[in-house]
Amino acid sequence: MREGSVFYKNEFAGIIQETDDGFEFQYTEEYLSNTLSKPVSLTMPLQQKAYTSTVLFPFFDGLIPEGWLLTIAVSNWKIKPNDRFGLLLTLCKDCIGCVSVIAKEMET
């Protein structure tokens, strides 16, 4: 199972992960307890319950580069263009905007 840490303005906001049933995103308790915290997306308001989807959430999919930048990334990192979650984890460490996603190394 692959997962990534989601940051909002460099503050750890939650975890996104690939599951057997699709994808899950959940805010951390620490992030939710901060009264100044903002949702990572208007489509994902702050809540304790995890968001689940059978496809990658449109907000996160929208962070992935397109066009020539995607072509360069796919050829340099040897990622399949249809592996949207792999692209998210590899390419979205330093996105334009407030949200970034950093791949978590799998523990053995």
Q: Which helices and strands, and how do they pair?
A:
Elements: E1 3-8, E2 11-19, E3 22-27, H1 29-33, E4 51-53, H2 58-61, H3 67-77, H4 84-91, E5 99-103
Mean of pLDDT: 92
Strand order of the largest sheet: 4-3-2-1-5
Largest sheet: 5 strands, antiparallel
Distance between the termini: 12 Å
Radius of gyration: 14 Å
Question: Based on DSSP secondary structure assignment, what is the total number of beta strands?
Answer: 5
SSE series:
EEEHEHHHE
Count of separate structural domains: 1
What are the low-pLDDT stretches, counting only 5+ consecutive residues below 50? none
Mind explaining what this structure looks like?
The chain is of the alpha+beta class. It has one domain. The protein is 26% helix and 27% strand. It has 4 helices and 5 strands; from the N terminus they run βββαβαααβ. Strands 4-3-2-1-5 form a 5-stranded antiparallel sheet. Strand 1 (3-8) and strand 2 (11-19) form a beta hairpin. The radius of gyration is 14 Å and the shape is globular. The relative contact order is 0.22. The model has no long low-confidence stretch (mean pLDDT 92).
What labels would you give this structure?
single chain, 108 residues, alpha+beta, 5-stranded antiparallel sheet, 4 helices
